[in-house]
Amino acid sequence: MKKNFVEELKWRGMLAQIMPGTEELLQKEMVTAYLGTDPTADSLHIGHLCGIMMLRHLQHCGHKPIILVGGATGMIGDPSGKSQERNLLNDETLRHNQECIKQQVAKFLDFDGNEPNAAEMVNNYDWMKDFTFLDFAREVGKHITVNYMMAKESVQQRLNGTARDGLSFTEFTYQLLQGYDFLYLYKNKGCKLQLGGNDQWGNMTTGTELIRRTLGNDVETFALTCPLITKADGKKFGKTESGNIWLDPKRTTPYKFYQFWLNVSDDDAARYIKIFTSLDKETIDALIAEHQQDPGRRVLQKRLAEEVTILVHSREALDMAIEASNILFGKSTKDSLMKLDEQTLLDIFEGVPQFEISKDQLGQPAVDLFTQAAQVFASKGEMRKLVQGGGVSINKEKLAAFDRAISADDLIDGKYLLVQRGKKNYYLITVR
Fold first, then answer.
1. DSSP string of 163-181?
2. Does residue 86 carry a catalytic annotation?
3. Angle at which helices 266-275 and 281-293 pack, to 10 degrees?
4. Residue 267 annotated in active site
5. pLDDT computed for residue 379 by the predictor
6. What is residue 151's predicted lDDT score, i.e. its pLDDT?
7. Can 339 be counted among the known catalytic residues?
């Protein structure tokens, strides 16, 4: 017996709005459902993860997921939740972004299986590119009144909000384009359900209305949304001071990705482990109970960080992230340090004091280099005393002699020196 998809979403806190009859349909037959994402970047970020996890749970419950990459709608821009019109992208960029997104989503969904519920990816540019404006106006525009479109909350917010430029006609048509996607997928893929974030509810119900008005009142389609995920303090989920947390390891290193989840609050960890992992209810309830007995051990955060890092990246990436964490917070060796790529090294030591020296300053005794060229120590006397007490390390190896020459052979990645004073004080020196 397959799991009940709606019940699965409910206990995970992933259900916001649902049209009447949706649960009954899902219990009656294998349902094809789609979720749309605009390819405005060549990577998804963790703000997209709730929707992707909805598709994953849908497939695990025996239904067929379709992810729609909005090549056409990405050229337009959606007013929902936005205060400004977004930049329009060219065809080449959109195609590149689509391919990158598919590679990321393939880690969550089974596209290759022989089962009837194998996942599919579609691009609405494929059916919109030859659709003329006159045909669109006649076949789609005549079915939905301007009054109906104007009543949508996303449109009202832009019209009555503080945006200087109001709402362009281009953006106003977005809900019709999204509605037509649903109509097309219903006719060509038998798709009866649209999934999305709660800010999409207006666009999604336009789709069900367009299908009803185009094909007749006896045709039933449905919509279901997940809540927009926020942090316990109400702030936007997934944003840090340095921007989004991306799924692409070139944009956000697995180390930084792992650290994001490791550092969420207790309340957020208890919510996120339900939303962003496939762990079952019994496992999660046990983890929450264990965490509450000793919050200081951060059992929830550690398991959450492990599960999501493996899901998005790999087991190897998780191992590297944990090893990288140990470099800063635990015992590690020079070998561990040398294995790091440059971006991970910079991420780990972001915020520690940093110095720059030129290559021609190499060859000096450590005591001169680290008191004059890079002022890690206040004086030569202080450094001598610390070295003699075993309190100074270069690249995670104890410095045995304060007057040892520092050469190019000591550099990490041909460019960096890591000086450690005592257990917790790090200094990163860049050699240019």
1. -TT---HHHHTHHHHHHHH
2. yes
3. 170
4. no
5. 94
6. 85
7. no
User: 387: which residues sit within 8 A by CB, 6+ positions away?
Assistant: 366, 367, 399, 400, 401, 402
371 included as an active-site residue = no
Q: What is the pLDDT of residues 96-130, one digit of tens each?
A: 898 899 999 999 999 988 899 999 999 998 999 89
pLDDT at site 233: 83
Nearest Cα to 432, choosing from 348, 343, 362?
362
For 150, the token pair is 């104007």
The active-site residue, picked from 178, 206, 253, 259, is: 178
> Which are the contacts of 120, defined by CB distance < 8 A and separation ≥ 6?
64, 65, 66, 67, 111, 189
82 catalytic residue (yes or no):
yes
Amino acid found at 46: I
User: Catalytic annotation on 313?
Assistant: no
Tell me the sheet residues that pair with 246: 45
From 45, 95, 298, 404, the catalytic residue: 45
Where do the DSSP E strands lie in 199-324?
A: 222-226, 239-240, 243-244
199 classed as catalytic: yes
What is the model's pLDDT at position 150? 87
pLDDT given at position 78: 53
Active-site residue identified among 145, 240, 283, 388: 240
Residue 357's contacts (CB-CB under 8 Å, 6 or more residues apart) are 369, 373, 374, 429, 430, 431, 432
Dihedral sign from CA coordinates of 269, 274, 279, 284: positive
239 is catalytic: yes
Q: Is 57 a catalytic residue?
A: no
Residue ranges in the chain modelled with pLDDT below 50: 81-85
Of the residues 22, 37, 38, 48, only one is catalytic, namely 48
State whether residue 292 is helix, strand or coil: helix
Quickly list H helices, 61-200.
91-105, 125-128, 133-139, 146-150, 153-160, 169-172, 174-189
The catalytic position among 60, 107, 143, 239 is: 239
